[in-house]
Design a protein that fits this description.
Oligomer: single chain
Helix content: 55-70%
Mean pLDDT: 76
CATH class of the largest domain: Alpha Beta
Number of domains: 2
Shape: globular
Radius of gyration: 24 Å
CATH superfamily of the largest domain: Conserved hypothetical protein from pyrococcus furiosus pfu- 392566-001, ParB domain
Distance between the termini: 59 Å
Number of strands: 5
Number of helices: 17
Strand content: 5-15%
Largest sheet: 5 strands, mixed
Low-confidence stretches: 1-5, 238-242
């Protein structure tokens, strides 16, 4: 890869075209951290910019840095300029686009980056070799891109829908994706809720009426799914209400908090490719946490909960 890198040069920030694929995965918090770091230390991670035969510059890596520099009003920046024209252009572009995968932008954006590489003429076998990934991993990422409705992808590019949420939407049938995406954006639903709703829609036992509700009124559908799960977990058994001592409740809360902190630490260390193994267990945990969250909110702010239900 060294033969493609010329050197670090000072260039105009405004002259660099942003990368829409990377921009779709940019986290606001990451941009704010970049801005803080730039103000204190300067640019820590130098952006990589590709240059074509015609002199056009476009970003290959460092979208957070470029966004932060623009928002800070910086006119000039140091960047690694790479010639992506000529016979070696496709390989150079692939090498540098894949740098962005180190930031784990999410499966959808990974697929979009890989698609750019394929469209540049790089064989899938070369992609597998460079990434150290299996053929199925590359195929799964690329198929995710082809499954996503074009209108939903436009919502991602415009910043209306997060890339990771769109990744969940892509699991729906193509004809249902856009309507669902519009609704969840309007309702402001988080990715965790979207994932649960999509899983419910794709469940073979899900009635048609519930599927319609998931698309038109996802909040009501999510509550319905949670209530159903709660009823199933109860199993029709007699539940005897017993007075619980406050100390016992406090001890249980502390225990759960410690276990959640430990689980969070473990999952943060897991690479996404390995974390997939726990998908089913994590989805079940998510539902349980949503139930607990509703109960906690009702206990902590009962007035707000009642006002929310009356609206």
């Amino acid at each position: 890869m060294e033969k493609y890198i010329n050197k670090v040069r000072e260039i105009d920030v405004a002259a660099v075209a942003g990368n829409k694929t990377l921009a779709a995965a940019v986290d606001r918090r990451a941009v704010e951290r970049c801005k803080e770091a730039i103000e204190k230390l300067g640019v820590v991670h130098t952006p990589v910019v590709g240059t074509t035969d015609g002199g056009t510059r476009f970003l290959l890596s460092g979208q957070s840095e470029l966004t932060a520099l623009r928002e800070l009003g910086v006119k000039k920046m140091d960047a690694i300029e790479v010639d992506v024209a000529g016979s070696g252009g496709a390989s150079a572009k692939l090498s540098l686009l894949l740098i962005s995968l180190q930031d784990k932008p999410g499966a959808l954006c990974e697929g979009l980056l890989l698609q750019e590489a394929v469209n540049s003429g790089v064989p899938r076998s070369e992609i597998q070799s460079m990434l150290g990934k299996s053929a199925s991993w590359v195929s799964n990422r690329l198929s995710l891109v082809t499954r996503l409705d074009g209108n939903v992808y436009e919502m991602v590019k415009s910043g209306l829908l997060e890339a990771r949420s769109a990744q969940e939407v892509a699991r729906l049938p193509a004809e249902a994706q856009f309507a669902f995406a519009e609704t969840v954006v309007r309702e402001g639903l988080p990715k965790s809720a979207i994932e649960s709703l999509v899983a419910g829609y794709n469940d073979e036992s899900c009635p048609s009426a519930v599927k319609t509700q998931i698309l038109k009124d996802p909040r009501a559908a999510l509550k319905r799914m949670i209530d159903k799960r709660r009823a199933v977990n109860a199993g029709g058994q007699d539940i005897h209400k017993e007075k619980t001592m406050p100390d016992a409740v406090n001890d249980r809360i502390k225990s759960v908090s410690l276990q959640l902190a430990e689980l969070c630490y473990i999952l943060c260390k897991e690479p996404p490719s390995e974390a997939v193994r726990y998908g089913d267990a994590l989805r079940a945990l998510e539902t349980e946490l949503l139930i607990l969250l509703m109960k906690v909110k009702k206990l902590v702010s009962p007035g707000k909960m009642e006002a929310g239900h009356s609206g």
